[in-house]
Amino acid sequence: MSEVMRPYLDGHYMSGELNYTVKDLRRVINAVKDRYQSEGAEDFTDGYSLETAAWRFNIRPSNTELLLRLNIETREEHLVEEIKNSIEAIISAN
Asked: Based on CB atoms within 10 Å of each CB, which residue in 21, 52, 77, 92 is the most buried?
């Protein structure tokens, strides 16, 4: 199966689901939105998503736990860590 999927995954890097415990989920999501809203297309279907030509992320509250969930997908491997670090800085500041 991995051989079949390889052509679809080449050039596609993912963080996997990252979970954070925060005091105020809405405040953190709004802070992330304020930082990134001018960089791409926003979507509010499930939490807050933002998509650019090179990367996208989704940040949302868990439906079953008191956690904030973050998923990042990029076309360049180094961008996963850059975006993760930027969003984690926002999370820790709130």
From this structure: 52
